[in-house]
Amino acid sequence: MVDKKVIKNVRNIIDGLAMHQNPESVNVLEDIGTNSKVDEIREMTAKALVKKNMPESLKVVITNKGKGINDMSTSVAMSTINELLSLEDKAEAIRILEDTVENNSDEEVRDNARSIKALMALS
Amino acid sequence: MADLLSISSIRERIFNPTKHEKSVARSSNPFAQTSFKGNVLTADVFVSENDKAKESQANKISFTGKLKASALVGSISGFGNKIQAGIESVVAFANRIKDNVVNCWNKLNNTEITFEPAKEAILRAGAKAGDAIHSMFDSGISSKQIAKMEDLSVPRQLFMDNVQAWEAALAS
Asked: Could you report the predicted ipTM of this complex, rounded to two decimals?
């Protein structure tokens, strides 16, 4: 059983890093959050990275296999997609999705990016 | 050798004057027929100053002849060999020092620090720093606190510790 205080701490740290202005905060979220064994932590981290809406943070959840929209956990992938669709300014996300469709070496990553791009165009 | 023979013959002639009477007439010494305290100088015992000078010159080292010149060159080249040997010994010494330094460096690289008090002190310092960070957030970590921190090493440490605690709780 996970201590509630620990869960709360993790949530607050991720939210705090999502608000942080220092670009290094993206690295902290990627290094620790997206590589965690716990689905909830990866999910919260991916959503925080999308909220930051920075090129570096969006690249982490769009172009990397096993992270964000390409996560093995369906809940993590769907939560990330919902967060992308919820963005007010989608320009940067669409630009990265297009770049991923054209240039990414992994076919699965390209297919996922193409699907999300279509969804974002409809939303 | 000729000089030695002449000296022995002179002595013989001085102390045995009658034996060499015949040779007296052939002597070039103007005092040959003069008696000195009963002895007659029968031989030329006076050595010319020129001869003495020649002899002293002969004893001095001069390098006028080809043989002597070549000996001089040989000695110089031998001296060069000594210098070269000296230089080689210096080079060998330097190489030995270099090898020792390299070996020392390799040993240092392969040496694990096993000074227990130092290791314990470092571990204690790290644990104290970690405890200090966690004691700052005993009441809980707020997102605003994290967002305001300029040094991201503290949020990174807190994030890592809490994630590990979560994963450990799920594993147990």
From this structure: 0.92
